[in-house]
Design goal:
- By secondary structure, the protein is an alpha+beta fold.
- It folds into three domains: 91 residues, Phosphorylase Kinase, domain 1; 231 residues, Transferase(Phosphotransferase) domain 1 (Transferase(Phosphotransferase), domain 1, Orthogonal Bundle), CATH 1.10.510; 117 residues, NTF2-like, domain 1 (Nuclear Transport Factor 2, Chain: A).
- The protein is 31% helix and 22% strand.
- The protein has 15 helices and 19 strands.
- Helix 3 packs antiparallel against helix 6 and helix 9 packs antiparallel against helix 10.
- The protein is globular and about 65 Å long.
């Protein structure tokens, strides 16, 4: 007898299983078409009422994010439903007919440069969009990208944040946190393995995916330069241009600061890289014997502290990718905010973001994105635009007061996150410019956390707004630091904030002594 989930979804077969649950192919018995769908069964790693309540709240938030993403763009599956039963959580998503990149490679052989170019451009637009929503995929790899049968577009599946939610625990301070790191060894960079996934972690994973498609070799099969810690891969590629080599090398740099600063930057590098001679060659090269020895891509739930041990067990070679980076201590950050994705593979650079349209009876989450700017961004031909006269925006006294209060609240939230040791939350309240300030953060996020670990508590004694517009705000402060060493420090600082239109929030752009 076939299993019926939630008195509705009839399981046809099991697609996969792991530490967090199982994935099923099912039919929706309450739809006239009995449409097929993917049902993901997820279970928390700890079973008690406090943890269950936290997981439940986080699960609802992550489901809402998946609904927004899948409902807005075509290359992320739709979320049809979510529910809870018998202490487990379920997601019901659109079934994407097609083969993963891994299966495609095994069937048809190595990808050539023009096909890699198309896939990268297409997926970078997806990353641009999800990063603009402050979401990190966390598990990009060939097994999590499906070439959709009907249009051959790459579809990004299996976001890692939902699985990470199942690993929620309460730390010694009583705050909820995740006890593991989601990712696939070899495809995730060192900072992600250490529990600090950032936007450029997705760019790294996409670059390693491209290498697999070009060479047929998993990351563990490639050598590492002992001097630089970088992957030696291009000698295995077929007829690859130096420009494409350089683009991929930058994407997979071991240190985040050496990678592309955003998905958009990598996208623009690819757009400027023409490969006309490659377009006349077959899409795929003949299969090679090395493919039969592929290493499976298993997503792994990792305790950051035990990551080195796991890597050593996975392979005896000194070229283990992430392990080498952990030893080198190359942990840093590079954060981005982006936008868009594509239409047809061979026209991707010319077309604006393709968004899903809602049927008359559907309600979709509105996406606050500057779509007209996206169209210009991905237009191949420059467009002459008649700009209207620039007018200064004049704020009313009520609007100024509201903006000042919001800017000051941003600073209160920033230091509240720091006092709670929620460093990633605090880091996300800095602008990209300030995050990349080498004087303040010479080693990116690592420097940021090292400094604040020396501080036991920060007390805001006074905040005074000095100048506010609809785009910028200046706030003076007087702070009192209690250091871990017992030392007390009083300091006056001036904050320069900028309004981020993507997140609709104030971000700290610059800090100077007052």
């Amino acid at each position: 007898m076939q299993t019926l989930l939630n008195d509705r979804y009839q399981v046809i077969q099991t697609l996969g299983s792991g530490g967090f649950g199982e994935t099923f192919l099912a039919e929706d018995t309450q739809m006239p078409s009995r449409r097929r769908c993917v049902v993901k069964q997820l279970r928390p790693i700890q079973n008690n009422s406090q943890i269950y309540q936290l997981v439940q709240e986080r699960f609802q938030r992550e489901a809402a994010i998946l609904e927004e993403l899948g409902g807005s763009i075509e290359q992320i599956p739709n979320l049809y439903a979510y529910f809870q039963a018998n202490g487990q959580f379920y997601l019901v998503q659109e079934y994407i007919e097609g083969d993963t990149l891994t299966t495609t490679l095994q069937k048809q052989g190595l990808f050539n440069e023009s096909r890699i170019h198309e896939i990268l451009v297409s997926l970078l637009q997806v990353l641009d969009y999800i990063h603009s929503k402050r979401i990190i995929h966390r598990d990009i790899k060939p097994d999590n990208i499906i070439l959709r049968q009907r249009d051959r577009k790459p579809v990004l599946i299996d976001f890692g944040a939902v699985r990470e939610t199942m690993a929620t625990v309460v730390n010694s301070q009583g705050n909820p946190t995740s006890s593991i790191v989601i990712g696939t060894p070899g495809y995730m960079p060192s900072e992600q393995a250490a529990g600090r996934a950032i936007y450029s972690s997705d760019i790294y994973s996409l670059g390693v995916t491209a290498i697999y498609l070009l060479t047929g070799k998993q990351p563990q099969e490639l050598e590492i330069d002992s001097r630089t810690g970088e992957i030696i891969w291009y000698k295995h590629g077929l007829n690859l241009s130096r420009t494409m080599q350089a683009i991929i090398d930058k994407a997979i740099a071991s240190h985040p600061r050496d990678r592309f600063s955003s998905a958009r930057e990598m996208l623009e590098a690819l757009r400027s890289h023409s490969v006309p001679s490659m377009l006349k060659t077959p899409i795929l090269q003949p299969a090679v014997t090395a493919l039969s020895h592929s290493v499976p891509q298993h997503t792994t739930a990792i305790n950051p502290g035990n990551f080195q041990q796991l890597v050593n067990q996975a392979s005896g070679q000194k070229g283990i990718l992430v392990g080498s980076f952990i030893i080198g201590g190359l942990i840093g950050t590079s954060v981005i905010i982006g936008l868009a994705l594509n239409k047809q593979p061979q026209q991707v650079a010319q077309e604006p973001l393709k968004q899903k349209s809602a049927s008359p009876n559907e309600q979709t989450v509105p996406v606050q994105e500057p779509l007209t700017q996206k169209s210009v961004l991905f237009n191949e031909q420059p467009v002459a635009v008649q700009k209207p006269p620039i007018q200064k925006s004049i704020l009313s006294s009520e609007q100024i007061l509201a903006s000042e209060e919001a800017a000051e609240q941003t600073l209160r939230d920033y230091y509240s996150a720091i006092n709670s040791r929620q460093y990633q939350t605090a880091w996300n309240q800095l602008s990209i410019q300030h995050q990349n300030n080498t004087k303040s953060h010479p080693n990116g996020f690592n420097s940021f956390t090292e400094w604040w670990e020396q501080v036991a508590q920060v007390e805001i004694q006074q905040l005074t707004s000095q100048k506010t517009s609809n785009q910028t705000a200046t706030v003076d402060s007087r702070l009192y630091y209690s250091m871990q060493s017992g030392r007390k420090i009083s300091q006056s600082l001036r904050y320069f904030l900028v309004w981020d239109t993507s997140s609709q929030k104030w971000l700290i752009n610059k800090i100077q002594k007052n």
